[in-house]
Automatic annotation (TrEMBL):
InterPro entries associated with the record: Cyt_P450_sf
Organism: Cephalotus follicularis
Gene3D superfamilies according to UniProt: Cytochrome P450
Name the UniProt record assigns to this protein: P450 domain-containing protein
Single annotated GO MF: oxidoreductase activity, acting on paired donors, with incorporation or reduction of molecular oxygen
Amino acid sequence: LPVIGQSIGFFIAMKYNKAEKWLDQRTQKYGPISKLTLMGKRTVFLYGQAANKFIFTTGILSNQQSKPACIILGDRNLLELVDHDHKRVTDALMLFLKPESLKLYAGKMDGKVREHMDMLFK
């Protein structure tokens, strides 16, 4: 049964920390946009950079998540925020996720990790 198999496959992947592999396999088999049944609820699966941009910039998606998605993600996640709160958080994320910002943060984080490793392993 696909209804049970998709949910079980997803939960097994989550349990063994292989969710990314599960997502990659699903994307290879069905493409970056597909439908599935997860925990008995019909769900649309979006994957990739275009999907992230669509979710972060579309205010109409907020507050339309299914009950299973709320169970998985929690009731205070980005997809549940509305209006001003949603815009404020997505604007902050988009500012943080710009390539220039990521380069800056990656350099800082690399320095901190190296400092920590030197402290622990010398």
